[in-house]
Amino acid sequence: MTKRKLNIEFIRIFAVIMTISIHVSNLYLNSFGNIPNSFFGFGAVFNSFARVCVPLFFMISGAFALEKEFDRKKYFERIFKFLIILIAWSAIYYFCKSGFGIKNLGKVITNSFFNANMTSRHLWYMYPLIGIYLALPFIQNMCKNMSRELENLFLILWFCLSGLSVAFLPLAKFITKTDIEISYPVPLLNSAYYLGYFIAGHILYKRFKNIELSKKQNILLIFGYILSSSASAIITYFVSLKINRLCEPTGWYKSALIILATAFIFILFANKEKAFKSPIISLFSSQTFGIYLSHMLFLNIIKKCIVITDINPLISVPVITLIVYLASWIFSLILSKIPLLKKLIA
Hints:
It is a single chain. The protein has 14 helices and no strands. It is mainly α. The radius of gyration is 20 Å and the shape is globular.
């Protein structure tokens, strides 16, 4: 078994905590106009700083998957496993919403493949993940034959076409009140921007994993993450107030600000394998996928018990995020000890 790199496992823990934070803070963003502006503003801050979560997952996957040789058996086993996990968890969330019954089985299977909104919206991540792994053999061969010059060109074009044009055109439309409808779905570069994170993770990890950064460089990376995330929060807050409705294109995963924030965090920890030695990291990181899959069960329970948006987000977001994380971790840990059920989380 491949030895886990604890610095990468730490990124997984950070990413899944940020995932939960997004789903808590989203309640405040989606309540714009019905809550105090201060609550909305603090919610936007938490949300913007957490937006690196999904991109980090894709970058971690790309960092390691694209280094490996194609294995036909593992290829089909992985796809089959992901499909089973998607259907199983879609069924769990669908039955929680609609009630148990064999008559719902057809709807569960259909919604598993076509409509995450009928199960749980956070399962959307499984769709591009499965898509990328379906195309993995072709992506692997493409990346292995890319020179450093082509890698640089890919990163620049992906950042510009996905990060700048796709995300900021809607913002320009909102501000100028002009009918801007321009769409150039360039293959690989902006028509599948999650693939961009996947390939960028491979490129950046390959380049930075053996480079020891200076204290000044580490500080600059942290500052870059804070600056990018803060800019996203500020734009979301003030533009939303200006147009009197929620506007968050700079908070989309394809936004230039989120791409930059994600890259800063990924590079910051990519080369720090020696800095992480505690076995506790593995204990928590081993349940990351299970936590991601199950955390909405516990957040939904909390939402039924209290009106979260009545509480100041400075208190509710960190506290509820921690509660949901620990409950999901315990739940996932228990499932991992049951032979039949552990296949649902790993």
